[in-house]
What does this fold into?
Amino acid sequence: MSDPNRLTEIYQSGRIPWDQPDPPPEVLRTAAQMPIGRALDLGCGFGRAALYLARLGWQVDGVDFIPQAIQEATRRAQAANLHTLAHFHVSPVTRLDFLTGPYEFALDVGCAHSLSTDELADYHAQLLRLLSPQATYLLFAHLSTPDDAENAHRWMDEANLQNLFAKGFCLSAVEYGQTQVNDQAPWPSAWFWFRRLPGSD
It folds into this structure.
């Protein structure tokens, strides 16, 4: 799992690369194609995706393990008068027993790629439990590569992801690209669209 001290320092610095007014275009495009329902924002940060969906009428639960992020997300929901639609919770994304499904949409913009293999299995089990049949799960992840020893255990192993999510999910689409933050070297990354299969708990 991501280092909470490092992430807390980023939030305290006020220089937060993912604090943007709107979610990424992939989230906007996906939400526009779906009927309004219940959504789960995993690793929600300040709640940009959750609040966007709430403005459309979705009931959204956002989860993040950094208390400062959840405090600010809650403040923003209240300031926008969206607090009855968007609810935020301090918790690791691997331990969601306090939530009750079903959700029609789950999204993760850069959280699961920091999980260990065991944590990813717990995360997958929670999604199996919480998502309704035919639900959409949208994941953005930095991908590890065989020749990148430094980040081999930091980012997402795509083969492991697809093998794990073969249980209960169907991969609908993948879009590959690269991501660069500030002056750091770019990473290979991808968006994954999964569909929850019925009758596969």
Summary: The longest strand covers residues 131-142. The mean pLDDT is 89. The helical segments are 4-13, 25-32, 48-56, 67-79, 117-130, 158-165. The longest helix spans residues 117-130.
